[in-house]
């Protein structure tokens, strides 16, 4: 497990954490990369770490096919949707930040609920 995934797992296993892209940058990635990371950089680093987690069967994350669909649909349906009951109309407009924040929350939720019993010592949770 690389340092980024390790830091993300420790962050998401806290009682409370900031699930915004700025929260990730400031609380996780600033120490590993750069404190002034841009929005796109945060998304890229997060997705790379998530790909690593999905590839490790001991984390017991959903199959990659299901995961991709859930990530793509996160802003418009399900628990992480931008609107509580999901998008009601194609005329509804969202900002790019709202859209990606929903995806970030979905990924962080998956990491929060992943199995870490096998690497708990490495995470020092």
Features:
single chain; 125 residues; mainly alpha; 56% helix; globular
Write down the oligomeric state: single chain
Tell me, rounded to a whole number, the average pLDDT. Answer: 84
The sequence of SSEs as H and E is: HHHHHH
Helix content: 55-70%
Q: What is the approximate shape?
A: globular
* Cα-atom radius of gyration: 15 Å
Helix segment tally: 6
Query: What is the straight-line distance between the termini?
Result: 15 Å
Number of domains: 1
- Which class of secondary structure composition applies to the elements? mainly alpha
Instruction: Give the strand content.
Output: under 5%
Low-confidence residue ranges: none
Largest sheet: none
Characterise the protein shown here.
- Helices cover 56% and strands 0% of the residues.
- By secondary structure, the chain is an all-alpha fold.
- It has one domain (3-120).
- Helix 1 (3-12) packs across helix 2 (21-32) and helix 3 runs parallel beside helix 5.
- The two termini are 15 Å apart.
Topology (elements, then pairings):
Elements: H1 3-12, H2 21-32, H3 39-55, H4 64-73, H5 96-112, H6 120-123
Helix pairs in contact: 1-2, 1-5, 2-3, 3-5
Short description:
The protein is an all-alpha fold and 125 residues long.
């Amino acid at each position: 497990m690389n340092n980024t995934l390790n830091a993300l797992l420790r962050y998401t296993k806290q009682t409370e954490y900031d699930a915004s892209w700025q929260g990730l940058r400031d609380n996780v990635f600033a120490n590993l990369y750069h404190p002034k990371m841009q929005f796109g950089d945060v998304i890229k680093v997060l997705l790379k770490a998530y790909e690593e987690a999905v590839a490790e069967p001991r984390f017991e994350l959903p199959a990659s096919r299901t995961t991709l669909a859930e990530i793509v649909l996160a802003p418009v349906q399900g628990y992480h949707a931008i609107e509580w009951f999901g998008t009601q109309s194609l005329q509804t407009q969202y900002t790019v930040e709202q859209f990606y924040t929903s995806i970030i929350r979905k990924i962080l939720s998956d990491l929060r609920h992943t199995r870490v019993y096998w690497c708990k010592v490495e995470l020092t949770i």
